[in-house]
Structure formats: C-alpha cells, structure tokens
## 1
Amino acid sequence: MELSSSFTHLPKISDISFSSSFTHLPKISDISFSSSFSPIPIQIHLKTPKISKNFGVFAVAIDPQELPQNSPQRLLKELAERKKITSPKKKVPPKRFILRPPLDDKKLAQRFLNSPQLSLKQFPLLSSCLPSSRLNNVDKTWIDEYLLEAKQALGYPLEPSDSFGDDNPAKQFDTLLYLAFQHPSCERTNSRHVKAGHSRLWFLGQYVLELAFCEYFLQRYPRESPAPLRERVFALIGKRNLPKWIKAASLQNLVFPYDDMDKLVRKDREPPVKSVFWALFGAIYLCFGMPEVYRVLFEVFGMDPEAEDCQPKLRRQLEDVDYVSVEFEGNKLSWQDVAAYKPPEDALFAHPRLFRACVPPGMHRFRGNIWDYDSRPQVMRTLGYPLAMSDRIPDITEARNIELGLGLQLCFMHPSKYKFEHPRFCYERLEYVGQKIQDLVMAERLLMKHLDAPGKWLQERHRRLLMNKFCGRYLRDKHLHHFIAYSEQVQDAFEHNRRLRNPATTAVQQAIHGLSYTAYGKPDVRRIMFEVFDFEQIQPKAV
C-alpha cells in the first residue's frame, strides 16, 4: 500500500515505517501525529483497493518539493487553504441601504400638510425652521422638565409662549428653544424631526452671530480695518471660548445633563456647546430679531468687548488722518446704542449709521472725478440703481443718489490705490459687512427652499454656492471687473494675472452686497444676489 510518495510501500500494516516525525508504535489505535499537521481533512488516494475494515489513516499529503515545516510561506499557504474551506459569514447590508417602498401620493401630501413647517404663512423663514412633524410625548416631557430653567437663565418670562397671538413670531419660541438644546450627542437626537430641526437652527445661528458682531464692531471701532475686528469676534465666539459663556449663563446642566462639563476633554465638550450656542441664537433671531440677540450676548452671557483676552494682536497701524462721522467721533458706542437704534423717518438709507461707519465722509472729494463720470453710470445701470423711492422731498432723493454713487466708487476702489495714505479709502469695511450679509441671506434662502434638508447638507450647499471663486466669477460675467480702480504700479499685474485679479473681483462683489445692505436693506441684497448676479445659477443662460 502506498499512502503518498513520501511514505514507504510496505505489504503489512505492522511493518509500516513513518518519517522521522512519527513515533513507531505496535498498534494502529495508538498512533499519534505531531501538532504540526493541519487539521484540514485532505483526501488520500490509495492504490490497493482491499483494506481491512478497521483500518483508517489520517494524514496530510506532502509534496516532495514542499517547503520546510516552519517556513512562513508554508504557514501562509495553510491559512489560504483553511480560508477556502471555512465558509464566510454573510454580511447583512446596513439599514440605510435597504430601500423602503415610497409613500403613495396621498400619504405624502398628508405628511406635508400636517407638518408645522407649512403652518405659518406670514413668517416663512420661521416656519421653515420648525420641526418637520409635531412634537411627541417624549419631547413634551423634556419641555416640562427643563424649559423653565432655560428660560429663567436667558431672562425670558416663564409662562408658555403659546399664550402669544398667531401674528407674533414669539409664539413658537418654546418649540425652537427645545430644539436648540437637542445637540447631536444627546439622547433625543435619534428622532428625525429633532435632529434635523436642531441642525437647521445652528446652520442659521452661526451667520446671525457673525452679522451681529460685524455690525456692532464696525460702528464701535470706526477707524479699524477688518483684520483686528475679525480677531475680536473670534476671541469672543471662537469654539474654545464658548464653554465659558455657557457656564456664565448656568446652562451647562442643560447641555450636559449627565456629565460635569469641566471634566470632559475638549473634543467631547466643545462640539455640543458650539452646536447649542449657534442654535440658541438661531431661535432667538427668528422669534425676537437682532436687538434681542445683542441683549442675550452682552447681558446674559456677559461678553465684554474690552476684556483683556479679546483684544487683537498688536500690529503696525497706518496713520488715519481722515475724519469719521460725527456720531462716532470721541465716543465708543455700547451694545445698547446699536440694539436700540432706529433710523429717523427722513433717513437717506435703511442702515444710515452702518453706512457712515463704512463710507468715510472724506469720500466727497472724489465727486466729479473721471470714474464718477465714466464708470459710475455703467455700473449703476448694470446693478439697477438707483432704486425708485417715494420721498416727500426731492432733495432727499438727490442726496441719496449722490451718496450711493460715492459708495459704489468706494466698492471699486482697490487697496493699492489710496490705502497707504488714507487707510479707509478702500472697499475693505464694505467687503466685511457684505460677506456677512451675503452668508445670512443665502442661509435664509436655502432654509426656505429645502424644507426637509438637515443642516449639514445645507452647510455644504451654502459653501458651494458662495465659494469665493464663484462670487468673483458672477461679477466678471457682468463685465464689471473692468471698472476696478487699481494704482498705476499694479494695474498691469492685476489685469493680466488671474491669481491676483480673481480675489480682487470677489472682494468687490462682496462690497457691493455690503453697500446694498447699508443703503437699501436686506431685500435689495436678495435682488442683487438672485436677480442681478444669479448666485443660484437657475436663470436661463443666453445662447
């Protein structure tokens, strides 16, 4: 009998001799193999058909040219063989890939009609930020337990907001305040309507905060350039400092009901706090408007713009020899001045003080220059300016149009032209306010347009629509970049090098948004962005 080529052919069982790894034993039943053999059963082909019934051989066939016993290649081969024989476990696809049958038209229509998002016709933005389905008993339990504590900390009356009339946006404050505290790490975030409602609020709230601080600091520091202003904002509402403000208002137990906030590591502490902080200001803005945002920031959270750790880093300042408007001269405006300010009835602009903070009075020296005669009429024609206004006195209309023309000239005035002698004679401050109002207007547009979209998706869409290269591209599509006033030394470089030109066109685009906001208000920013420049890219293109 021959087991395989490595075994010796012997006629009798008793005379079988094995290789050196076998132990010679008199009985078959006592034969033991060493542990180096694989447990995988391998078929053995026997040449002699007649074998006694009690004889069974368990062995591994070995090639004559096989690798040594302990070599890694051999072990890898054995592993490969073993994997072939053991059947792999079937993987269940994750739930999100299992398709559900679509809702039929009747159910879908019913779901939309029952959604609170379609309940307020007179407040479309507020309505779009309500939860997509009605609050259930678990939501109401949280409201019963914690809402009074939140309201007391923020300084609001404790009675339910349902007592307000239907024409008052504050009626929805309880619902939005509940959503604001349901950050992604808390237990209620598995409910779709809560998760999406919270993320939509923080998506809006971040731009509300940026615009609030932008307007406040531009008026408080009328001579500063935007760089130190941005540093001040970051020092107040950068994510590293937000836990400090939440703790100052005693809201940490609502954000972390089961943990001590001070003992959490930064990566566990900061994202939930940032999410709640932004969503909170989204809710306050929707229900009470911008003055209330200032009150909560400076009264409830106790932010101090003059604090030592909120000051910008020291830098070489250009000497500012130009005048500022009379209302800013010699006094720093407080947050109460900004929050309570109402423009007079015969004011030239929607936000006259913000306009004065961005367009210095000395701009009048440029009236009647070449740009004013040559470029201004073409720019105003493209932008649809001046808008028709019903003024009682014709002189007011004329004064507004003159100021608007000077503001437009400032929008197209590149820093290389006059900035080193006159630091505020460039578009930088208008660009700063334009960036912030552009972000907020686009955020509101997306919220009202995509009712069922979560905040993360809206954030990505917002970023793609407002990417800097696109903003500059819309201006270039209208051929307005030819009117930018550069200094003679850099004019050729900027006109023939797109890496220099494109950021400049982006800045001019944003400065135009800032001017339209200060002069005519938010509706005109919408007109400029979505009708004149087509930021959403939905208008038909000329063939």
Note: The CA atoms of residues 28 and 55 lie 8 Å apart.
## 2
Amino acid sequence: MVLSEPYWDHHIPLPKLGPLHSRLVTAFVALICFINSYNGDFVFDDSEAIINNKVAGIVGRADLLCALFFQLSFLVYCKAFQGGDKKFPVLWIFSSILLCAVAMLCKEQGITVLVSENMLSLFLPKDLWTDFYFLFSTQIGGLVSSGLLMRLALLFLGGSFLLYARWRIMGTGPPSFTEVDNPASFAENVILRIVNYNYYYSLNAWLRMCVFFFFFNVYDSVFYTLCVYRTLTFGLVLLAIPFLPASNLFFRVGFVIAERVLYLSSAGYCLILAYTVGYCSCHWKKHKVCAATLTLLCVNVARSAQRSQHWRSEQSLFTSALSVCPLNAKVQYNVGKNLAYRVNQSAAVKYYREAVRLHPKYVHAMNNLGNILKERNELEEAEELLSSAVHIQPDFAAAWMNLGIVQNSLKKFDKAEQSYWNAIKFRKKYPDCYYNLGRLYADLNRSIDALNAWRNATMLKPDHSLAWNNMVILLDNTGNLAQAELIGKEALKILPKDHTIMFSLANVLGKQEKYKESEGFFLNALKINPNVASCHGNLAVLYHRWGKLDLAKRHYELSLRLDPNAPGTKENYNMLKRKLEQRQRTVG
C-alpha cells in the first residue's frame, strides 16, 4: 500500500508503539478484561456481557463477532497490497470475502466490509490518478494491469453472491418487527419519519463522537493497526458505511438506538481522531495537544468505567435506561420483566402497566401482565388483557395459550379449548400448549383426549416431565395400572433422575402389590429429594401394607415432621400405632 509515505501520526506527542508492541498491549488489555469479567468485576467494554449470560443476549454477541470478522476481513484484504498496487495475490481477496461471509452470518452489517474495501481501493492507492488516467484515456489494458478493476470485480461478485445468500437465509423477505421495536418506522407521515430518523442519527452521532462505552480497547488496535493508511476520506468511510444497515434507509430495523451498532463505526472515529491529533500537533504547541489528548483518553476511560457498572446485573442495566428513556414502553417492559424474574411481582405489575399505558398495543407487555394477574387470581382482568393481545396480534401463540389457561380457570371450557387450538394453529410444535390442553380434557373427564394431548407433548418434547407424570397419574386413577407402569418406565428411560415420575410409578407398583420394586422407586426418589413429605407418607403406607411396621412407623414420623398437616398421614399413623400396641399386648 502506501508504505513508502511518512506516517501521518509522526507528529503526535505520545509514545509510539510498533505493530508488534501494539498487538501485545491490546492482547494484554483484552486478557485483563476477560479475567475481570469472568469474576464479574470491572471491564471497559462489553466483554463482560459476553461472559455473563444472564446479562447479554445473543444479539450483543453477534455484533461483537461481526466486528471481529469485519476487522479480520479488512486486514486480510490489505495483504493483497503488500507487494505494491501492480500485483496482488487473488488468494487474499477470496480469504477476505470468506471472512466477510462469516461476519455477515453473525450480523448483516458485516457485508459493509466489502464496501469499505472498495473505498480503500479507490481512495488510498498511491497510483489512483494513474488508474483513472488509464480509464478516461480508454487504455483499459493499463487499468487491468494495475489490478484495480480485478479487485473491484472480485469484491462486487463476492458481495452480490453474499447478499443473495443472506436474502435466501432470511426467507426472501425482510425481518418483521413490531411497532414498539421501532415506532418511527411505522409512522404513516413521511415527514414525521424523516424528522425522527434524523433525530436518531444525531443521537448516534453523539454516541459515536463521545464513544463513552467502548473507546479504550478499540483505540489502541485501530490507532496502531491503521496508522499506515494516510487518508482522512477512508476514516469517514469507515465511520459511515458500517452504520448504513442500521439507518432504516434500506429496510426497517428492530431498534431505535443501540450501542452495539457503533462498534464498527468507532474504528472510523478513532482513525479520524488520530489523524486530527497529528494534524493539530503540526500547528499547535505540542504540550497543549498532548494534554488535550490525555484528557480525552481519561474522560472516555472514566465514562467507560461508569457505564460498565450498569452491566453488573440485568437490574442495573435495565434501570439505567429509565433515566434516559422514561417514556419508552420497551424500557418499562424490560424492567418489569426483570422484576418478575426476581419474583417481585407487585413491582413488575407497575412497570408492565406503564408499558401498556405508553403503548396500548404492546402485546408482549399485555401477555406478561396477564400471566401475573392469572397467578394472583385476578382472572377477569387477565382474560381482558390477553383477549386484547390476541385481537391486536392474532398469530400470538403464547397469548392464545395463556388465554386458554385463564378461561379454563374461569370454567369457560369451550372457549379455553378453542384458544388452545388457536395457539397450536399458529405454532405447530407447541408442547406446553398440548400439555395444558390435556389438563383441560382431564378436567372434563375426557381421558382419551387428555392422554393423546399429553402424548403429543412428549413427542414434541421428550423430556416434558409434567406430561409424562400426568399420563401415569391419569392411568393410575382410571385403573389402567399395567399401562401406567409401562408409561412410567418409558418416561424414566428419558428422565432417569425425575423423582416425581419415580413417585407416581412407585404408587402404581404398590397398588399392584409389587412391593419390592415399588420400594426401590420410592427410595430412589427420596435420594434425589429427601424432603418430600408425600413420598415418605406413601412409602410408609407401602410398608404398612407390606407388614414392615417398624419401617412404616419411621416414615410416617418423617412425613409428619416435614408436613404435620399432610392429609391422611396422621390417621394412618394412628392406625399403625394401635396395631403396634395390639401386637405388643398379644406378645405380652
């Protein structure tokens, strides 16, 4: 490339590191971040989010992986110029396109590395004007020999193929988002959309200029890796091009503002900043430039430290957004969801209600709020919310299932059955819905339909413990003990450590007077969970019927110790005591 030109950072009044040393420093800082984040301590960027699965979703990881492969693709492409602009190895170009494909599979903006590489070819080569002279002089042979046309052609063909592949992977259509994800993109008024989009762009520009969140790590690697390319234009390209897929210009995106979409653009910012500092060093006093640069670095590191505190937990992360976007329904929803996860339902209801107030068509907030109200036995309001949710979004399968559960609790069995089938209609493979449908049929004494529904649940989800257990219990209650035994043993082949199925199967075997086998399942269940009063109580009944009265007495007492109000246990224990007393009198 332009290795013969002087480094444009030569005048920056800061210590210089060679390529090897800068890589070592960057690797060392990355290792420190990894170690700290592994223990949940401070980090400068989102590496904590990658390690802590409770905080980071798959989306953030995809963006970081995309940024990694974007940079690798770009650096590999630069290898094509090491021998000068006249000759370049095609292998490096294909390797760059392959890495671009990986970046694109992680996140769609990875494809923009090819655009950046095109700009690199056009703006950076030293003999650019020679190439254009050949072009406009119709001396195409000279242009081809320079390698520019070949590079551009390979990048264009590779990019076209990757775009087609991505389009097919997406189902030949853009992704679908709801209005709450990106309200401005759903505005019918064009002027309103334009105004909101420009507001979003200004906020992203502010974030990018400040780089509060991820400046420290990117700065070193980009500053020292890209310092050989003496062009401000390319810095602007790297700043703007990776952001284009998130700009809503080509297709609707599923967010309003996200720090993660600025990872790649921050590289362009750092490049321009280094260029600007070098330029200022030639015109201002160096000690002033040095002080300003160090101040900027310290401010960004301090702000990064402050921001990373929010990533210590989901609660602090979501709550921090409230101070920025208190009128954003999705922020209120996220806070409520986190509170519900931590079993603080009263507080969760408050935030869910606020989310619905701010966005009356927010079906996910309605669904979650309806679930909490269902658990609090506020069934009428829960039914109203869930009915509104499925009316707004008729293909919302989870809301249909939850509506069916509420209607079942309200004894509206016909409506509940229809709601369950609507859920299955919109989500073919829905084992939980089949399980709840089976419960409905069991309540209606439609045993065969219940068994079929639960069998469907286990076929779709073989480890669905509740469906297996309910089949065993239903067959037990209807007197089909042999079939219940077969189902229970089939279930334990898939779930060998499930103590609830062991308990149900042990009851079945006890009724068949298979005492020894029944005892084994009871004891195995108690090994897994020794504090289940009903298991001790039923094992005591087994021993009682088996004639092992001392063991029966011991387990009756254990059961009553765990649950003094266990139904039937106290009466059975009193019967056993009378029998033991009678036996002692007989012996005496």
Note: The first helix runs from residue 19 to 38.
## 3
Amino acid sequence: MNVTLAVKQYISKMIENSGPGMKVLLMDKETTSIVSVVYTQSEILQKEVYLFERIDSQNRDSMKHLKAICFLRPTKENVEHLIQELRRPKYSVYFIYFSNVISKSEIKALAEADEQEVVAEVQEFYGDFIAVNPHLFSLNLTGVARGRSWEPALLQRTTQGLTSVLLALKKCPMIRYQLSSDMARRLGESVKQIITKEYELFDFRKTEVPPLLLILDRSDDAITPLLNQWTYQAMVHELLGLNNNRIDLSRVPGISKDLKEVVLSAENDEFYANNLYLNFGEIGTNIKNLMEDFQKKKPKEQQKLESISDMKAFVDNYPQFKKMSGTVSKHVTVVGELSRLVSERHLMEVSEVEQELACQNDHSSASQSVRRLLQNPRLSELDAVRLVMLYALRYEKHSSSILPALMDELNKKGVSERHRRVSTPPGHQLSQGELFHGGRNISLGVENVYTQHAPLLQETLDQLIKGRLKDSQFPYLGPSSLRDRPQDITVFIIGGATYEEALAVYNLNRTMPGVRIVLGGTTIHNTKRQCCQLFRTDRPSYAGRCLIPQFLI
C-alpha cells in the first residue's frame, strides 16, 4: 500500500520496456506533475532519458536518433495530439503508455494514424494521480462541487483518478460512503460502475479480508483545514504552500536567485524524510545539528592539494559535499522563513486560541481571546478571518454569541463584506455537535497546547478498524459487508485532505499491526485553499472561478 512506489515502478517499467539507447519522455501537463513528484530529472537522466517534452508543444525538432516514451492521460486532446504526431513522426520509435483506461475506438484511431509503423507498444499504466507521500495521494482538483453537487466533468476525473489508485495498488475493494453526503454516494456508485465494467482489470488475487474503500466529504470536518500546523511538511504547506513538492520562495526578503523555488521531496532528501512529521521545536534542533555536521565536513580553506591522491579524494568527495551544501542552504532558508512568519504573524498566540476554539468548550474565555487578537493591528487578515470562521462554527448559535461584534472588527480591518461572509461556510449546515465530533472535547490530553486537536478522520478510522463504524452513517454499496477487521483501507475525501490527517494515517499505520491505510483527496488543503473553496459560487456565470480576497493571493 505505497502509492509512491507504485508510480515509480510504472515509470521504471516504461523506460525498461523501451530498451537501451537515447530516449525522449513525452508528457502532458498532468503527467508531467505525476512524474516530477516521484523522480528527479537527474534520476531519469541516469536511465538514458535525455529530453523531456510536452506532447502539445508546437516547437519540437525532429530527432530520429531518439526513442519516444509517451506517458499521457487518455483525453481526447492527447489522443488527437498523438494522431498528429504519428502521421509525421519526429522520433524513430514510440512506446505509448496511458495513465488510465483508453477506449478501443481511440486505439483504432491511433493504429490507423501509424502508417509508418513507428509504434512499438501501447499499454495502460495506472498512474493517474499525484503520489504526495507513500500513504498520501492527491488529484490536484479544486472546485469539484457546485453547491452540494458534483461538477459533472470533475466527477468523471475524480472517478478516473480513484480507480487508477485502486488499480495501481491492485485492490478491488468493497465500498462504504458517508450517508450524509450525496456527492460521496455518487462517487461510490461511479467507481463501482467502472469496477463492474472493467471487471477483468480488477480480477486480482482474492485476500482473506477484502480491501475497503471509504469515501468521505470535507464538509463533515470543516475545522481541520482551518488550523495552523506545527509539523514540518504541514507547516510548509500552510505558511508557504507546497505545489507538487515545490515551494515558491520568490517573495522571501533577500532570497538568493538559486533559492527562489526549492523542491522538498522525501524520496530524494534525507533530512526532509526524517523530519517530515516532527514538530517545529524539534526541526530547529535538527537544523542546528545539520549545520554543525556540515561545518565538520566542509573543506578547510587552507587545505592544500599537494598530490594526485589529494586531488582524487577532493574530486570523489565534492559531489557529496555539494549535495549536502544544497540541502543545508535549502532547509535553513525554509525553516528561517517559517520562523519569521511565526514571529511576524504572532502564530503561536493565534494557534493557542484556535486550539481553544476547536478543543475546549469555554465560550467566555474563547470570545475574550478572539476579540483581543482581532484588536491587534499586527494580526494578518487571513488569521483574523480564520479565527472568526472557527468562532462562528463553534458558537454562532450560543446564547451569548458575539459574532456580530467580531464581524465589525473584521470590517474595521478592511475585510470586504463578501469575505466576511465566510462566517457561515459549508459544513455549517451540520449541527455544532456534528462539526465538533459529537460535542465532546477532542483534545488528546497532550501537554502541547498547540497540538491538542485531532481530526475527525482519526476517530472515524479508529471506529472502522475496531468494527464499530455504524452502517447507518457509513453504509456499504451493495448487499455485502465486512465481517472481519479491515486490513487494506483506502480513504478518499471529496473536497480535499490535509497534512494533519495524513499524519494521523501515518501514526495509525505505525501503531496498528496488520492495518495498511492510504489517504487521498481531490486536493491537499491549507487554509488558503479551504477559503478559496468556500468563496466559490453556484452561479453559472462564475462556475469554477475562485473569488479570492487579495490577502489570500
């Protein structure tokens, strides 16, 4: 149950099938992202892939000495691009791989276009998703809903992505869905239709306990995406934004040209892999240790290269030293910027109040804390809106609610009326008790006041693993149901997952022997993306357009 490994194996197999010789990798916009998150360019270069091109590029030169490996989504546009390519081939031979199921009629059209017989192979390799972490995947889709219903085209794309994950992991699952969400039911039925239609593809070796697909809706837990995070990967996404493992640091004061965009990948960065789920305090200590280790290995300026053996040792060690130098520079810069933002935006104080709103049930204390922060002129608009959203979700119907006064405070900060309406986001359609996990205190009893909150997903999975998840709330599609404790579980959240939920899944995988869980979502949320989703409108003239306030851009 490792989505990263599954995609890497597909790509390795493509390259291996093409045999020895120089190659070009032809991709589309989406498959470029799929490949880039699991392989670095230097890694693929070592496999004799010397050129990377987009299938829709109009300026490609003819290079008959190269073999072409095509990895494409099976869209009408890509098939048409391939037809044009095969009619006037630029490369000696073509190995074509689609990331999902392609129709027989499209295969026929490609065969008819291949008059020069340059196609050596056509296969389906089911890597139609972004493998973020080994146990976390995303479809990079936003705006999947129009009100409480699917955007039709995005239901189809989500179905394709989710069935691709199941095929990559070789799972033919039983399906459960969140009864309160019509979107979850429709997605479950759509996936079930594909499994029935393509039954031969899903004819995997039967296991004693069938795998399970659990489909959830983000609106069931509107709280988790709004909270500040304090583990490394989650903090980076919340404060800087992770996009296919890339961070844009161009707005960082005094940033050097080489560090305006950096890549954080656990597959190729040992420090990042080891610190992914550690908290901010531990990261600071580990950065200090990394720096000290780097200083020890740094060549002394006065070191003399007096012999051939001295020169050979220097050359042998230089690539490793250069790589370590890049790692140190990157993480010192990233952690330094995180630290600056935490200080500048008073995030420790903000986070403490967020946790109080999410985990405690003291209206008097919470209202005083929120009002005090809103009156701080240095509080950012994003954090002000975030706090009011959390207060509204928790206390709008409280007899002593001060929500109108808090809205006035937002007005004084210059937040527009449209953006002040976030005080009643989707998910607020649920009762207060449902939003806050049945009204119970959801603190885990931890001493750290910044990490009291546990996402609803953690409780849902705990109940599922123990066989206590109610069929009345999470029914099965079809007549069958699991009698035994589930072992292989794929969870998919319509509307997006979060890194806090990914951490919960990681910990469950570590502590529950025999249970393997993979989490996915239409996107990976941070507060900005959640607000973007909440600002979408149902009006057809604005369908799919994100009405984001300036402070979220």
Note: The chain has 20 helices and 17 strands.
## 4
Amino acid sequence: MYVCVRGCVSGVVKAAEEECDSGWGRVRVFLQRLGKKADSSVLSVSHCDLTATDLLELATLLQFLPQLEDVDVSWNDLIGGCLTTLTSHLHHVGGVRSLRLCSCRLSVDDITGLGEALGCIPFLEVLDLSWNSGIGGRGLQALLGKLLPPLREMHLVACQLTAADAAALGGKLSSLPRLCVLDVSCNPQLTQEVEGGGFRELAASLSHATSLTTLRLHACGLTPDCLDALGGSLRYLPSVRELDVSCNRAVSGGLNLLTFHLAHLTHLEIFDVHLCCLTHADLEALIQVLPALTALTELDVSSNKEAGGVVHLLVSALPLTQMKRLPLNSCSLNQESLTALAQIVPSLLGVDVSWCKAVGGRSSLILDTLQPSVIAALRLSSCDLTTDDLRHLASVCRRGCLSSLKILDLSYNSSVGDEGWSTLFEAGGLGLLEDLDLSLRPLTSASCSAWLPALLRALPTLTVLTRLSAQRWTMGSQERQQLSQCVRKSKLLLEFDPEIKDVTSLCKRTNQQRAEE
C-alpha cells in the first residue's frame, strides 16, 4: 500500500513539473513572437501593438509566472476596453510589485476592473497609469478606494485629472504612508477650483505624505494661489528630494509664495522651474533661498528670458562643487552670463546653452572650462556658432576633455563653414559619443560634400554612436551610398533627409514643411 501511494505522489509531482515546463515553454514562445526575452520575474510587452486576443493569451500565461514582480504592458492602445481580461488573472501573480499600463486607452470599466483586482496583488509598490485620458473623473475616484498602503509610487501623467480628482486624491494620501513618488504632471484641469477645495485640498493633504521624496506638478496650470497652498505643506515634507513645478506660466510674479517655504526642504536635490515666465522679482526670491538648499545638485531655470541677467547671482548662491545640472537654454545669455557660468561648468554633467546667440564667437568661455571624465552632454543648438568655434571645440576634443561625452548637439548652426565641420571630425577624442545632431533649420539646406569624407573616416572610431542626425544636409547618390555602406553593420540610426531627384519633389516637400510650420 505504501509503495502504491508513494508511486502515485511521485507521478503527480512529475506531471506537475512537466506541466510547469510546458507552461514556461508557452511563455517563451509568446514573448519570442513579440521580439521579447522571457524572464520569470519581469514581463515587459510595451510597444508591442497587442490586440485583445494577445491580451487574452497573455492572461492565460500568468499562471506559469508565479515569481513575477514587474509587469509593463504600456503603449498598447488596442487593449483599451478589455483590460479585465488581464486583471481577472492577477491572482496568479500575487507577488507583483510594479504595474505599468501607460497609454493603453483605458476606459472607466478598465480602471474599475483594475481596482477590484488590486487586492490580489497586495505588495504593489509602483502603479503607472499615465497617458490614459479615461482615468480623469469617475475612473480615478473609483480606483483610489482600492489602493493599498504598500504603494510607493503613483504616476498619473496626462490623465485629464480634474479638480474633483485632486480633492479625492488628497483625501487618500493619509492612507498611503509609504508613498514616495507622486507625479500628476500634464493635468491642466487639476487646478480649476471646485466647491470642496480642488487643488488646495490636495496641497493641504500633502502634509500627511511625510515619506514623499518626489513631487511633480509639471504643466498643471498652477497659479500663485496654488504655490501658496503648496508652500504651506512643505514644512511637513522633510524627505522631498525632487520638486517640479515647471511649465506653469501663470505662476509668473508669484514664485516667492513658494520659495519662502523651500528652506524646509533640507534634502532637496532637484528643483525645476523651467518655462514659468519668471520675472526678475521671482528670480531674486529664488536666489535668496538658494544658500539654504545645501543638498541641491540640479536647478532648471531654462526658457525663462530674465534668467540670463542674473546668472552671476545664481552661480554665487549655488553650491558650486556639487552642482550637476544647470541648463540655461533660451535664457537670453550675454557675455557676462557666460563668464559667470564658466565658474560652475567644471562640475556639471551636462551643459545646455542652446538658443543663446551670444555663445557664437564666445564658446571658448565655456569650452575651456570643461573637465575630462565629467561632462556627458553638451548642447549648443542654435547658438550662431562660427567656424572658429568649431575649431576650438576640435582642440578641446584633442586634449581629451570630451572623452566622456555621450550627447553632442550642434544643430541649427548654419554659419559654421565646411572647414569647421571637417576639423571637428578629424580631431578624434569622442570615443564614447552616443548621440550626434548636426541638423540644419527647417526650410534651409546645404551640401555636406566638403566635410562628409572626414565624417566617414571618423565613424569607425565612434563605436558606440547610436544616432546621427544631419537633416537638411544634402549629398549626391554616390555619397549617400558610401555613408550607408559605412554604417550597414552597425546599429546606428541615421536621420538624413530622403534623396530629392527633381525640382518638383523639392518644391512639394518645401511647401509641406511650410504648412507644418
């Protein structure tokens, strides 16, 4: 009898193992069909054009992934309306800690079904539902009541959230004690006040989110009143390391209502106020509080014209040796600004002074301070660079000061002569470059025949280059063929305009570009 029972148990175990092996095989086949690799703990099928049928098949495979922790089904807009096909099987993967469903055209029913299934994944820490417009309104409010305390990150970018959603979200924060990241960017209706508080209620409720380290309110239609409400809660948020209130033009003239409270954020490392139409008074208020932000490593005041006139004050108030990013593109810089900026450049990981015409002819003020093994990104787009500027850049390359550079943007600098481009490509010293942009402005064009040979000789040395953009530079058929042959065995993405064979097609294309402009 004992032998019989033991034999039966052994047979059941063997059958279970065979079924598991067969199930894993099905998982591998499914993912290989989508061009993905199988991983027992990570399931990523983003950007796969999944259909409702694919989603059903994926759902039936979850039972063979008991160790799954990370699920990403983002950017599959054909599965909207049928998400319950997947969520009804989440009980098979109770250990999931990250769930991303960005840009899936989720409906209210999808969100309701997801909420009902959250109890099956009680350890969920990251929930990303960004770029789903159906979440705003009834969708979010049906979901909030189902969120569990372990949640650490919630991303709701561009979900058409309303002021009522803001109030409802505020009411939930006290029951999410571990929440570290809250991103509600690109929801301009969030601040349209309603009876019951709206954004003010959300801002006041942030005082309960004491674990918060990242708060992003980019392009939310913030006003000075919103900044005032937000500032009142900052004293209760000692752990915040990143605060983003960028692209909120209406805060112009009222930044002091926020900066007055910034000193409470003793661990603040990143502060972003780009494209906020900051006034001189706004910038003065910011400069006054900067000495108190001793942990700051990144400050973004770009796309604020007035910033160009106070760079010297900004630099004198910042902790120079620890700053990693200070983008000043579109800031109306002048020679005095560039001279002041040069003091902080040696510690920066990236330098961005694009769309500042004063750089042309004065780039040496910046280039001569670059430090090898530090600078990773250099952006000089639309700076009126000259041939001499490119010669100087080439000499910096030869000295090895750009040996760690990964991104180089020299686009929209049509005043550079052929010699300048050739000298740069012949200089070497860009062995780690991954992204290079040489494009010309729309509706302009020029021949690259004079410097193309130098580029072709340089390409074999740029072994990690993944993108080369040279739009609106023209070349002959034979030159185009040489370029294609030079990169055919690499993974380099070439962004050149298609060959134009006759005047008619040129005119047609030019008219189309003007219409787009």
Note: The longest strand covers residues 42-44.
